[in-house]
Every structure is written in structure tokens, then in C-alpha cells.
Design brief:
With 88 residues, this protein is an alpha+beta fold. Helix content is 32%, strand content 39%. The chain contains two helices and five strands.
Length: 88
């Protein structure tokens, strides 16, 4: 029988890593982040996770997210969102 800790580890591994945004470097010395998500809140959460990984312990700023496309995916309505990131 699995211990509670082992069961928790199995559940965490089975759920996968939290989703993050895709990114490219931009002309301003920062990054442009992009995400296809079910909601603006979901996209912003992904932007924040990605920014924390890229800037590693440094403060960062994200521009106001912009919806660049609307569409339908396997889970229903989806939006493509973009935001710029600058590490301090």
C-alpha cells in the first residue's frame, strides 16, 4: 500500500508541470510572451510563471495582455494572448 507521501508524489507527477507561455526575445531587450488559453486569467497566470522562470529572483514587469486572436479548441473557446516582459 502506498504511503500518503508516495501517493502525493504520484498525483503530482501524473498531473504534469504547470503550463507556461511560449516566448521570444524582442527588440526592447526583453521578451514577448504568447499563450493560447481558455481565459485571460489563465493566460496571465502562465505569463507570471514564465516571467518568474526567465527573471529568476529579479523583479519583472509585464505589459497589459492583449488578445490577438479568438478561436475554438478541443476544450471550447480559446484566445491567443500576448504580453511583453522586462526583467529589472
Amino acid at each position: 500500500m502506498l504511503t500518503r507521501l508516495a501517493l502525493l508524489a504520484v498525483l503530482v507527477l501524473a498531473s504534469g508541470c504547470p503550463k507556461k507561455a511560449a516566448y521570444i526575445t524582442n527588440d526592447h531587450g526583453g521578451f514577448t510572451l504568447m499563450s493560447k488559453a481558455g481565459s485571460m486569467e489563465q493566460a496571465v497566470t502562465r505569463f507570471q510563471r514564465t516571467a518568474a522562470d526567465i527573471c529568476v529572483g529579479r523583479p519583472f514587469t509585464l505589459t497589459t495582455p492583449i488578445v490577438v486572436a479568438n478561436g475554438w479548441g478541443p476544450m471550447g473557446s480559446e484566445i491567443d494572448v500576448r504580453s511583453d516582459l522586462a526583467c529589472q
